[in-house]
Amino acid sequence: MNVQASKLTIHNLLTMPGSRSQRRFTFIFGAIVCLISLLSLPIASSKLPEFQAYQPAIFSTVICFELITAYVLFSQFLINRAPAVLVLGTGYLYSAGMSLMYMLVFPGIFSPTGLFHASSQTAPWMYILGHFGLPLALFLYMWLDHAYKAVELSAQRARQLVVLGISGTLFLIGLLTAVCLYGESLLPVLLSQGRLTPWFIYGFGLPIVLISLAALVVFYKISRGSTVTSAWLCVALLASMLDVAVVMCGGGRYSVGWYVAKLNTFVCANAVLSGMIYEFNKMYVEMSKLYRKVSESESNYKELLGESQLAERKIAEQKEIIERMLASSREAIVMCDSEGNVIFANRRFERLFEKPLLRGEKLAVYCSCLKAAQGSLSEMIEGYLQGRMKPFRERVSMVNSKEKTKYYECYVSPIANETDGTLLGHLFGFHDRTDEVRMVYYDELTGLPNRRYLGERLMEAMQQAKESKMLPVIYFMDLDGFKKVNDTYGHEMGDRLLQEVAGILQGCVGNRGICARWAGDEFIVLLNRLETEEQLEQIAQTIIQTINELDTVDGKEIHVTASIGVAIYPIDGTIGKTLLQHADQAMYEAKMRGKNNYCLYAAISEAQ
After folding, report:
1. Which of 74, 344, 470, 567 could pair with 582 in a Cys bridge, judged by C-beta atoms 3.0 to 4.6 Å apart?
2. What is its EC number (predicted)?
3. Among candidates 86, 82, 64, which has minimal Cα distance to 74?
4. d(Cα 147, Cα 562) in Å, to the nearest integer?
5. What CA–CA distance (Å, rounded) separates 402 from 106?
6. Which fold has domain 51-281?
């Protein structure tokens, strides 16, 4: 074998030391995962509502995380050429491949019985065989790390082993899948009538738990969790072990145990990647410190020459890892200096926001098209950089070139020197949350915000009103004659009418407030700022008149009108729930007065 003794210690992701507080956080997180799993055991078989998208969502994320982890470990191996790191890379590749095949053959995801003519035994066998991978890979990693710790492979040999490792792992995945698919009659039955058999529990499940426990104990005894990544590896192995343990205790599909087991699978896949991202951030801090030290120490140039040469090699190696990792990330990630100038940005920015983010560009200027709940993201970034705001995690939105609204979660973290707290820069991240936001905060039929979104915005508006003279106003609107449309043309036409009314409301209100669907044919309009009473009346009359002029929908003649109740904060209520109730009462008063008009709650109160 083409090897040589390494003359230079090259730090890799498993040898970067962590602080006591970092290790404490990792172990607390592991304890929480363990506690959740243990608390779920007595009720593991209790059924919960079926969420069909849960398993595909979890496993697609798990596969992505594990493939990214494997990719980074292979890249790290090509740089430091330590054989043990290659084993971890193939271990995560194996786990990702087995997770993919498990999802493909699992009944009910892509086909009723699973793809490739899978039987009821195929998925349990893929599950069992997949969970042997991580503990065995960790045992092999520890042995190689002990036997070949001072060995560095040649670059050519390292590339050959990567190709061999990937090919061998893919062949093994294919072979095991074929055995599980076509050798069913030769394999023990693991699942019978929806229940786990003794073969599953005692023949394979319990050995996996014991092997994982042994690997966890030995690895912790050797590493002591002294590095961030090794500590997160312990958490990953713990989550994998608890996954099997919870399933053994009766975690049938869509039960408490089943959901907890899948959560443990997610933690197992995500834990090590989280540790790696932390290490990359730490590497950036160290690089920034070193550059500053070199630039400010010209008088000591000769003494620092030898150290800088070694540091340059380390910087180049770690920079390559960072760029590869960030380029493959599903998040748009950018590092800025203390003044908000871009130092590094991955290509994800151009994909998310339709234009590249260049080195030296001001991030606040780039984000001028992104809107936050309170103003623009540019203003928030400027406020943060100037010290007027703390580090934040905010949901922002923008309208893309196709005139569709996209939603993102933006977070920022300061990058500081751990020794003296000197600010070195800032790390910003953007994650696409469009699908999640639409599912949670928007009505599927009309596309308008729903009750939950309205409730949050109403609370924010009332809080802002305490600090300014602008008062929020609630319009509670109900359609007169909507039931007749449903009875005459059917519910499909009723749905189309609701969509038309939603468009009318948005056109009438514009950027002066929020239009939301409350329930059935009831709609809510929230005006954040009421400047004059005439403006209040004008908007109400415009809505009523425009809906009254709506005479056809999809070629069908219809006639509906609108009754609106109006409540003003804090005159008509200081609590959101009360304000909505009073607006509702005012709306019913408008109906009693002949419909097709509006009524202020204050007018009802004065009459009483």
Report:
1. 567
2. 2.7.7.65
3. 86
4. 80
5. 37
6. Rhopdopsin 7-helix transmembrane proteins (1.20.1070)
Contacts of 105-112 with CB under 8 Å at 24 or more apart are 105/177, 105/180, 105/181, 106/55, 108/52, 109/55, 109/56
> Which tokens is 133 given?
């991978």
pLDDT the model gives residue 6: 44
**Are the beta carbons of 322 and 280 closer than 8 angstroms?**
yes
Architecture of domain 329-441: 2-Layer Sandwich (3.30)
How many CB atoms neighbour CB 249 within 10 A? 20
pLDDT, tens digit, 9 for 90 and up, residues 375-412: 788 988 998 998 888 888 888 888 887 777 788 889 89
Sign of CA dihedral 275, 431, 130, 212: positive
User: Which two tokens mark 47?
Assistant: 């059924």
Side-chain half-sphere CA neighbours of 290 within 13 A: 18
**Which helix H or strand E contains 345, and what residues bound it?**
strand 342-345
pLDDT of 50 strictly over 80: no
Total residue length of the chain: 608
Q: pLDDT tens across 534-586, in order?
A: 888 899 999 999 999 999 999 899 999 999 999 999 889 989 999 999 999 99
C-alpha to C-alpha distance for 118 and 15, rounded to whole angstroms? 43
Q: Where in the chain is the domain with CATH 3.30.450.20?
A: 329-441
| pLDDT digits 0-9 by tens, 402-415 | 777 788 889 898 98
- Rounded to the nearest 10 degrees, the angle between the axes of helix 491-509 and helix 533-548 is 150
Helix (H, G, I), strand (E, B) or coil at 427: strand
CATH of region 444-607: 3.30.70.270
Query: Which helix (H) or strand (E) element contains residue 156?
Result: helix 155-182
186 vs 180: CA distance, rounded Å: 9
